[in-house]
Amino acid sequence: MKSIKILLKQTATFILITTIVCGVIYPLAVTGISQLFFKDKANGSIIEVDGKQYGSKLLGQKFTGDRYLWGRVMYDNTGTYHDEEGNALYYAGPSNLTPASEDYRSLITERAEAIKASNPAMINQKVPVDLVTGSGSGLDPHISVAAAMYQVDRIAKVRNISTEQVEDIINQYTTGKLLGVLGEKVVNVLEVNLALDGILN
């Protein structure tokens, strides 16, 4: 039977080796590979123009102005914090309301009416569901093509440009189905709004 001293030595050696392999070598290898082959994605897919960062392609931002494309509902009322420079930091998440509840149905109806009021040209069209519901993460950066097209007339009117110009920008930042068959086409809200403002080409 091995002595306690030998067992402790073997245990300490095992812990040291696994710490070095799992805590140092593996993270460095993964970081190195990701920086070498997937640098943009590994660093958060940040949209940067002329040295200024506007946000990540992977995280939704809240746009409320009539001149902008609106994204999905963001449940950002869980608390607002600020960084050292005074910039607001939002912590978003899903709603806890069950879709079967009367409160939820009333909320959806209220949102749909607000969307219709802001897009009078589409008053007789059904409001796309992703304009009145939040995503599981609460920070989905995309909306459906139908949800984007629903807002074209409003954006064009406020910006005094043609609907064709708005549609062209939306089409430019529309991503096709995964592998051509999975999911649906989606529109990146942040990229469209930056393009509308002339920041992205």
From TrEMBL:
GO CC: one term?
plasma membrane
Pfam families, per this entry? KdpC (PF02669)
Query: Which organism does this sequence originate in?
Result: Anaerosporobacter mobilis DSM 15930
Query: Which keywords describe this protein according to UniProt?
Result: ATP-binding, Cell membrane, Ion transport, Membrane, Nucleotide-binding, Potassium, Potassium transport, Transmembrane, Transmembrane helix, Transport
Topology in the lipid bilayer:
Single-pass membrane protein
> Where are its TM segments located?
12-38
Assigned protein family: Belongs to the KdpC family.
Select a single GO molecular function from the record's annotations and give it: ATP binding
InterPro entries xref list: KdpC
Q: Organism's domain of life?
A: Bacteria
- Annotated localization: Cell membrane
PANTHER family reported for this sequence:
POTASSIUM-TRANSPORTING ATPASE C CHAIN (PTHR30042), POTASSIUM-TRANSPORTING ATPASE KDPC SUBUNIT (PTHR30042:SF2)
The protein's name in its UniProt record: Potassium-transporting ATPase KdpC subunit
Task: Summarize the subunit comment.
Answer: The system is composed of three essential subunits: KdpA, KdpB and KdpC.
Q: What does this protein do?
A: Part of the high-affinity ATP-driven potassium transport (or Kdp) system, which catalyzes the hydrolysis of ATP coupled with the electrogenic transport of potassium into the cytoplasm. This subunit acts as a catalytic chaperone that increases the ATP-binding affinity of the ATP-hydrolyzing subunit KdpB by the formation of a transient KdpB/KdpC/ATP ternary complex.
